[in-house]
Amino acid sequence: MRLKSDFFEKINTFIMAAQEVKTKGAAKINQKVISKSKNGNANGKADSLNTGISKENSKKAAEILNQLLADEFLLYTKTLNFHWNIEGSNFHSLHVFLDQQYNQLQTIIDSVAERIRNIGHFAKGSMKEFMEIASLSEQPGGAAVSEDMIGQLVDDHDAIIRKTRGLIYDLDEEFDDAGSSDFITGIMKEHEKMAWMLRATVARKSSE
Questions:
Q1: pTM of the full predicted structure?
Q2: Which of 87, 117, 169, 183 lies 20 to 30 Å (CA to CA) from residue 40?
């Protein structure tokens, strides 16, 4: 019986030692992760990627995408403003229509921000930053007339379409970022469709 007891004591000692080694190893790994998190991108610098695009071109592509992100956010805010403040006999139909539009813009905003992260940079995240680099203008809150409101949104969509159409070439040919060029093409198509739907809405309401 004593031999059996000694055997199990040795087994327990071995298991405890193995668990201690495992715990120390995990703690060491966790410390490395924490250290990397503290010292890695806390200063806002880009991720270090090796994807065939130079750091300079990647930075320029991110700047372009951040400017687009700012315009998308301003257009989103303007659409939301009109969704809230539209008045008139066609209030309900336009209220519902603009709900669809601002939700589409919300999806576009998220995809642009994620594209910026995909190429190793950080997306702007405050209204102050957006206002500093956006090319579109804000619209103060207040009662909105349907035709004027829709016209402003169409103009903003058209401005983004013109902008993205030029960026398709720039991103691919000047900055070697075919991925962002292809992405921007998709964004342009989304705005073309949204602008068409806005125009069709104005034409329908005007003919009534």
A1: 0.74
A2: 183
Structure tokens at 203: 């034409």
Neighbours of 103 (CB within 10 A): 14
- Measuring CA to CA, which residue among 78, 115, 108 is closest to residue 198? 78
**Residue in 39, 111, 109 with CA at minimum distance from that of residue 70:** 109
Dihedral of alpha carbons 91, 92, 97, 99, sign: positive
Spacing of C-alpha 119 from chain mean position: 12
Q: Distance of CA 77 to CAs 73, 82, 99, Å?
A: 6, 9, 12
Question: Taking a C-beta distance cutoff of 8 angstroms, is the pair 36, 106 a contact?
Answer: no
**What single letter denotes the amino acid at residue 111?**
S
For 12-27, give the DSSP string. HHHHHHHHHHHHHHHH
Q: What is the pLDDT of residues 8-49, one digit of tens each?
A: 565 566 566 656 655 555 454 445 333 433 444 445 555 566
Span 55-207 CATH architecture: Up-down Bundle (1.20)
What confidence category does residue 141 fall into, taking pLDDT thresholds of 50, 70 and 90? confident
Cα-trace Rg, the chain: 27
Give the length of the chain: 208
